[in-house]
Write a structure and sequence with these properties.
Blueprint: H1 6-20, H2 25-37, H3 52-63, H4 67-73, E1 77-81, E2 88-92, E3 97-101, H5 104-110, E4 115-120, E5 124-129, E6 134-138, E7 145-149, E8 155-156, E9 158-159, E10 164-167, E11 181-183
Parallel strand pairs: 3-11
Antiparallel strand pairs: 1-2, 2-5, 3-4, 4-10, 6-7, 7-8, 9-10
Helix pairs in contact: 1-3
């Protein structure tokens, strides 16, 4: 994890804070303190409920960040919209996982080789406009959920009790992270092999 991009290291630290019950702006200021001082001598600003092992783990994660990284990540904000522009949203917070899912459900509802979804247990989703056009489909007897614009059908984020799920293609702002993994590859399409070897064109080929 120490070799991971700053966004993922920060998300991991926030996960530790959540697990310990010591969340909030006080702890985010504590993260900045550790990043700036790079010290292992003081753990009080991390909260009194920390066990020694959790504190030591979080400290190692935070020392791998510099102060500029922390300042940027604390203000992480992403904007997104649907294809027709009727729905706009904002996601505030760091993404913890970025998965490409090859299961048959995701291939069906995207019409592609895989879904590309971002996951966060701490981010906040805010609908800026068009929430009345948001529709949700839950596939019976599965955990598969799809949120979409009722006008153009574009995939949209949704929230569950555990996390926020954001289709990467729905974001208008640039992502600084790359996918963590391909998942449910047992369901990969038969034609989804060595796609990087296919010719590439900047526009539609003539």
């Amino acid at each position: 994890m120490l070799g991971a991009p700053p966004a993922r290291r920060f998300a991991s630290v926030r996960a530790v804070l959540l697990a310990s019950g010591t969340t909030g702006q006080k702890n985010l200021r504590g993260l900045s303190f550790y990043a700036a001082r790079a010290t292992t001598s003081c753990v009080r600003c991390m909260g009194s409920n920390y066990s020694f092992q959790r504190t030591r783990y979080a400290r190692r994660q935070i020392q791998a960040l510099d102060f500029e990284d922390i300042g940027i990540l604390m203000q992480t904000e992403h904007l997104g919209s649907c294809l027709c522009g009727a729905v706009h949203f904002k996601v505030s917070g760091a993404f913890e996982r970025f998965y490409l899912c090859h299961c048959s459900h995701c291939r069906k509802d995207t019409g592609s080789a895989h879904a590309a979804n971002l996951f966060s247990s701490t981010a906040r989703l805010v609908w800026l406009s068009g929430r009345e056009h948001m529709a949700t489909f839950n596939l019976p007897q599965t955990r598969h959920t799809r949120c979409f614009c009722s006008i153009c059908g574009s995939a949209l984020p949704y929230t569950s009790p555990e996390m926020v799920v954001v289709p990467a293609g729905s974001l208008d702002t640039q992502l600084s992270v790359s996918p963590d993994a391909n998942i449910f590859t047992a369901g990969r399409a038969a034609w989804d092999r060595d796609l990087a070897l296919a010719p590439s064109f900047d526009t539609f080929p003539s």
